[in-house]
Q: What sequence folds into this?
């Protein structure tokens, strides 16, 4: 219902051609449909069959739930040209994701029982089947539903009933299409396939027809298949595995090295905040007012709440820390009680282990030590 | 459609819409038939062979570079800006929240010795926290002046974003906007920033109240020829800062970071050879190169350079031979400078708290001034009640206005306070022009021996500022004027650039005339250069009663792509200046000085690769054929690699041979009085740089004309 509202607003109707284009573009709507599905069911392993220029994969790599992302395409050159968009970005190393992520690309046919394609939770076939030769299409259900047997499959394909509304489309929307199906043709194929492999299927689509022509159906028809029973036995034998043409392992907090980096960073910054608060309070208590008076007097600025993020907690927690000589002691337990540190480490033992040797600790390793002198000068 | 004829054309091609580049030779005329996909129409393609390009043809170089970038990506390198980095090999400096990424700059260029792959092993410093966290820590440290402090620390820095591979320079902060504000997509859709990032990248912005960062792209013309004045707004939470913050460029932090990035020539070489090795051992990468018939030599290029003869350093009573590393630090404090100005009437300004330090300072000055040939009278003491800026300004102004004869002002300030320093400099350079020296109390405290050497340096510097001359070298060329020019680009909001212009005024090149010119961004250098040179010549005439027969201009701060601007705008300006004088046609030489060009020199004198000796010149093989250029390594680098300076001769009507130009350049590298040794660039460039920095970064104004014949900017 939500999409319908948006569509009504964005749908552009012209008198003569009947129809021009969708906003956002139809391909984006198809990808968004998949992304919404991923957001809803949180699959860990997702494969995109017929991944072409890897655009959908590229959108999916931002989904935190996905741990394995794979793409398959018969055309190696397009895939190779665009595959680098799937590489980790520089910032992925600064702020590694929480869960692991491995992206692989395989050059091969979707009618091939590749053992690399086993164990997926979601398989997407966006605008794929209409490109398949008859022989491939015949083998396709057996490979996807019988062999790969994921819990969910999404298949999208053009709805030929919509074609008369598209300007310039003669027979098929694309020269490489081997067929384009009516709603009935697609649905009967899908129902037959679902029945055969123990799936249920629901039909939907993207690209609404103009008002008054609702019987034409969506411009792109989509079938969402859900496996009825969890798989019990390994089905058919697999064929020769294809070689991955691309593989990227993303840095993540599952990797000890990046987890340690993140934890140490959080510990040091938390400790520094506590130190600042503690020293400020001591200075006030002793009536020392060493601060530059010009700074204090400077004009009042509207309070910027978003910049004092963990202030309150830190003020409260700073009472557990103390100053001795020119050294500030901040107990590790205090630091551990900060939500961000806590979430990263899980246990106190893990925290102790990760900061050992990375942060200056007291002799009994129970507190972080910071010098009261400013860090850099 | 061409791709469908791989059987005929091969799978390696580059097509720019009209010209097809292939690594194979086709028959003279080739006709292919193909069906157009969009409408099924039959199309005939005729390919006419027009030219066989030499492998090193200029038309091929861009392809080679595209190919090589692909090779770097195949090696899992990350492109940031124009260079490649390996964040997985990052060095993490936790206490500073910084990471140092190793990387490479790579390009394929045509040089006199053939096609070269230019590689430099570089690093990128990057903050490991988002700009939002960085702003939070600024807020904690200075809640009172939060916004100003953010502007100071962020504007001008280069950032990268969470979701794509682009870098942006920050120009401003929009405090009135938040991620909840909207913008218009190319499709006309209006979305909020937060929903855009969530929809497009699946990124949820956590802090909805943060301000937005502004990047103003360089003015580009849209296809319709209208200027596009787009703003790019960035979300601090999704943005990361690269480089070391400008304001922190002091401190232990910088030293530690530099330490991690330092590489000896041997280490530098190892990184280059490991890159070559990685390319060789990756079949994919090698294949990518071979497709275009590119083959990398297994090792770096080796060639023969030479070392220029050593110069003698002339002082007042004789000359000395510098040590092997070309420094003469000891000699300059033991022997009298060429000329020294007596300090008969000078002011010493300090807050009363630093009373005893001031006393010690004067004592130390008196004890070290003798050997360097300076005479020093007791200063007029200006003791301040406190160290506020207003107190300094008020006292200095009243002292200067009541007494006209003040030669120089020495101010002691506590700590390194940039605002106070700037206030004093503005006062003494612009409002009441007088040479001035500002000293931080920190540099004076410590061991007496240390104080002594600090004071020696300060005295030498003050002598320069007063118009004295420290040392010289033999200059055989007669009736010569040497000019140095450099530009300071400000990243601040007014975005003006500043040109520093310095010209020599005497035969031994120890007296200098200086000018500063401000110009708006993208503005061609207007009449200013002509005026600068004409004024300098006028001054020269007043001092020497003749005009120079030869003028050699060193222009710093010009990249390869800007060479044309120098040729088309600056040289004509300089030539026009000569017309100011009747029937005056001196020889003019214009050299562009480049410090950044990713060419490193090592020497193979010993078993390990080491830094070549200062004075090493190479003027063949790795030079570019378009102009007369050479590399000169003038300085001794105690640590790290030796990066020579590249000089490109754009004009030479003075009949100076290459050898002469090289030797003159090297001689000038001995004359920068802030350093008792050879420096990377000729002294006039060093002076022009200091001057442009002072005017552009601190004064924001032209200095007073009374100071133009002194090195007041040192």
A:
């Amino acid at each position: 219902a939500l999409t319908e509202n948006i569509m009504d607003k964005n749908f552009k109707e012209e008198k003569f051609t009947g129809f021009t284009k969708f906003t956002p573009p139809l391909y984006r709507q198809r990808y968004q449909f998949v992304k919404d599905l991923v957001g809803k069911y949180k699959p860990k392993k997702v494969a995109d069959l017929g991944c072409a220029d890897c655009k959908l994969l590229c959108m999916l790599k931002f989904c935190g739930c996905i741990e394995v992302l794979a793409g398959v395409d018969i055309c190696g050159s397009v895939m190779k040209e665009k595959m680098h968009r799937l590489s980790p970005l520089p910032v992925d190393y600064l702020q590694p994701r929480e869960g692991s992520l491995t992206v692989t690309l395989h050059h091969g046919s979707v009618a091939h029982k590749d053992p690399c394609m086993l164990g997926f939770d979601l398989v997407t076939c966006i605008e794929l089947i209409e490109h398949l030769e008859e022989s491939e299409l015949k083998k396709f259900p057996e490979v996807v539903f019988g062999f790969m047997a994921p819990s969910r499959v999404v298949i999208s394909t053009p709805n030929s009933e919509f074609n008369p509304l598209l300007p310039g489309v003669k027979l098929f929307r694309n020269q490489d299409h081997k067929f384009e199906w009516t709603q009935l043709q697609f649905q009967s194929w899908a129902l037959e396939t679902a029945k055969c492999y123990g799936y249920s299927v629901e039909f939907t689509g993207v690209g609404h027809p103009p008002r008054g022509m609702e019987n034409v159906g969506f411009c792109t028809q989509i079938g969402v298949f859900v496996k009825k029973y969890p798989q019990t036995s390994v089905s058919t034998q697999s064929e020769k595995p294809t070689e991955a043409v691309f593989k990227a392992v993303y840095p993540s907090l599952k990797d000890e090295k990046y987890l340690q980096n993140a934890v140490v960073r959080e510990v040091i910054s938390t400790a520094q905040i506590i130190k600042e608060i503690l020293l400020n309070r001591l200075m006030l208590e002793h009536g020392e007012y060493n601060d530059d008076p010009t700074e204090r007097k400077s004009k009042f600025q509207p309070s910027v709440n978003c910049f004092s993020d963990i202030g309150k907690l830190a003020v409260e927690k700073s009472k557990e820390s103390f100053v001795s000589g020119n050294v500030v002691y901040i107990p590790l337990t205090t630091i551990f009680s900060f939500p961000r540190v806590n979430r990263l480490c899980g246990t106190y033992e893990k925290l102790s282990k990760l900061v050992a040797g990375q942060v200056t600790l007291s002799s009994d390793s129970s507190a972080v030590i910071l010098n009261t002198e400013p860090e850099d000068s | 459609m061409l791709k469908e004829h791989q059987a005929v054309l091969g799978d390696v091609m580059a097509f720019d819409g009209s010209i097809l580049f292939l690594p194979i030779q086709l028959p003279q005329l080739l006709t292919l038939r193909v069906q157009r996909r969009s409408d099924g129409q039959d199309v005939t393609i005729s390919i006419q062979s027009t030219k066989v390009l030499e492998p090193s043809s200029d038309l091929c170089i861009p392809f080679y570079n595209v190919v090589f970038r692909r090779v770097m990506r195949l090696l899992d390198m990350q492109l940031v800006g124009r260079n490649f980095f390996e964040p997985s090999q990052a060095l993490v400096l936790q206490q500073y929240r910084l990471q140092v990424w190793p990387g490479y700059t790579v390009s394929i260029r045509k040089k006199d010795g053939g096609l070269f792959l230019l590689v430099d092993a570089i690093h990128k410093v990057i903050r490991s926290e988002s700009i939002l966290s960085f702003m939070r820590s600024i807020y904690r440290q200075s809640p009172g002046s939060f916004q100003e402090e953010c502007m100071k620390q962020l504007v001008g820095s280069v950032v990268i974003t969470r979701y794509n591979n682009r870098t942006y320079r920050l120009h401003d902060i929009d405090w009135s906007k938040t991620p909840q504000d909207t913008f218009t997509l190319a499709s006309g859709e209006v979305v909020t920033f937060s929903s855009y990032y969530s929809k497009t990248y699946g990124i949820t912005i956590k802090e909805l109240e943060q301000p937005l960062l502004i990047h103003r792209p360089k003015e580009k013309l849209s296809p319709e020829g209208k200027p596009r004045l787009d703003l790019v707004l960035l979300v601090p939470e999704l943005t990361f800062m690269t480089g070391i913050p400008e304001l922190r460029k002091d401190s232990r932090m910088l030293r530690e970071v530099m330490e991690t990035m330092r590489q000896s020539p041997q280490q530098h070489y190892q990184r280059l050879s490991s890159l070559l090795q990685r390319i060789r051992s990756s079949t994919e990468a090698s294949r990518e190169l071979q497709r275009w018939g590119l083959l990398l030599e297994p090792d770096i290029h080796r060639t023969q350079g030479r070392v220029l003869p050593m110069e003698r350093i002339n002082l007042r009573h004789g000359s000395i031979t510098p040590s092997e590393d070309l420094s003469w630090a000891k000699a300059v404090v033991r022997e009298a400078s060429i000329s020294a100005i007596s300090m008969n009437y000078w002011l010493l300004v300090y807050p009363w708290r630093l009373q005893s330090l001031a006393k010690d300072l004067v004592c130390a000055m008196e004890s070290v001034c003798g050997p360097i040939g300076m005479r020093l009278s007791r200063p007029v003491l200006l003791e301040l009640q406190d160290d506020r800026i207003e107190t300094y300004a008020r006292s200095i102004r009243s002292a200067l206005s009541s007494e006209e004869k003040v030669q120089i002002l020495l101010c002691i300030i506590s700590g390194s306070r940039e605002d106070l320093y700037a206030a004093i400099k503005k006062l003494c350079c612009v409002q009441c022009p007088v040479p001035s020296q500002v000293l931080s109390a920190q540099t004076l405290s410590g061991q007496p021996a240390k104080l002594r050497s600090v004071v020696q340096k300060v005295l030498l510097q003050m002598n320069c500022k007063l118009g004295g001359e420290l040392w010289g070298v033999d200059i055989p060329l007669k009736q010569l004027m040497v000019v140095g020019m450099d530009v300071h680009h400000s990243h601040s909001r007014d975005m003006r650039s500043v040109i520093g212009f310095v010209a020599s005024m005497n035969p031994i090149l120890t007296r200098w005339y200086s000018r500063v010119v401000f110009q708006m961004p993208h503005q061609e250098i207007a009449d200013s250069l002509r005026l600068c040179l004409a004024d300098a010549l006028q001054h020269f005439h007043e001092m020497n009663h003749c005009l120079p027969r030869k003028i050699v201009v060193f222009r710093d701060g010009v990249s390869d792509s800007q060479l044309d601007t120098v040729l088309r705008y600056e040289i004509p300006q300089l030539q026009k200046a000569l017309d100011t004088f009747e029937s005056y046609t001196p020889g003019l030489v214009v050299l562009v000085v480049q410090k950044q060009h990713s060419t490193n020199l090592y020497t193979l004198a010993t078993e390990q690769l080491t830094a070549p000796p200062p004075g090493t010149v190479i003027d063949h093989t790795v030079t570019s054929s378009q102009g007369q250029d050479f590399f000169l390594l003038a300085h001794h680098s105690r640590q790290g690699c030796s990066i020579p300076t590249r000089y490109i001769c754009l004009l030479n009507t003075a009949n100076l041979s290459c050898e002469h130009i090289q030797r003159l350049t090297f001689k000038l590298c001995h004359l920068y009085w802030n350093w008792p040794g050879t420096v990377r660039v000729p002294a006039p460039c060093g002076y022009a740089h200091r001057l442009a920095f002072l005017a552009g970064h601190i004064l924001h104004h032209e200095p007073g004309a009374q100071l133009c014949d002194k090195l007041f900017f040192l």
Notes: The two ends of chain B are 65 Å apart (CA to CA). Chain B touches chain A through 65 residues (CB under 8 Å). The mean pLDDT of chain B is 87.
